[in-house]
Amino acid sequence: MSVVDPFRAARLVLLLRQAGVRDNRVMSAIEKTPRAVFVPPEYRDMAYDNLKVPIACGQELSLPVVVGQMLQALNVQPDHDVLEVGTGVGYQAAILSLLAKRVYTVERFRTLHEKAAETLLSLELDNIRLFHGDGMEGLQERAPFDRIILTGAISRPPYTLAQQLKSEGILVAPVEKDGSQQINVYKRVGNQVEKLTTLGASKFLPLIIGTAREL
């Protein structure tokens, strides 16, 4: 993996702790992931700051602290298969690759999909599979998944997508309702999907839909 600035990465871990992220595996994975390689050159100086960063196609790289909070709630284990809906530039997929057995990630914008593939290949992360298309359809041919995470906001609870979870599987998603948005945590129990908790308010861009194809 590309070299990480140790001082700035350690400062980012401190910010994670202050925000309530206590999972050592999550903090270690974020510390080891070189966020700078995912950030456009003009924003590299702020790569390890807790800031959103504009990326291609009018999208943005999420706050590292929010990524940490969501991954902590996702509770990924080393033997898990994880589906990520919304690859973006691949930053969160890179972190997930250090936590899970396999990561499947879907991106609607081809420009982002191809850029993420290029960056992740350069980092030699070989347990990630990238798809171009509509992540809200899931990946039925690769289901069921132990965990599912969405990186864009949706307007209704993701019950259909959650049907691709294994029993006791967890899904984390930003959900917008009545003009406000919050990050919800769901769990599949039998054939039902239960909302476990809310992590708090969020400001994610809406998730874009399309049709999934593997790179």
From TrEMBL:
GO cellular component terms listed in the entry, alphabetical order: cytoplasm
CDD domains: AdoMet_MTases
Keyword tRNA-binding part of the UniProt annotation: no
Annotated GO biological process: methylation; protein repair
Enzyme class, spelled out: transferase
Localization annotation: Cytoplasm
InterPro entries with a match to the protein in the record: PCMT, SAM-dependent_MTases_sf
Keyword annotations of the record: Cytoplasm, Methyltransferase, S-adenosyl-L-methionine, Transferase
Domain of life: Bacteria
Molecular functions (GO terms): protein-L-isoaspartate (D-aspartate) O-methyltransferase activity
Coiled-coil positions: none
NCBIfam families xref list: pimt, PRK00312.1
Family recorded in the similarity comment: Belongs to the methyltransferase superfamily. L-isoaspartyl/D-aspartyl protein methyltransferase family.
Record-given protein name: Protein-L-isoaspartate O-methyltransferase
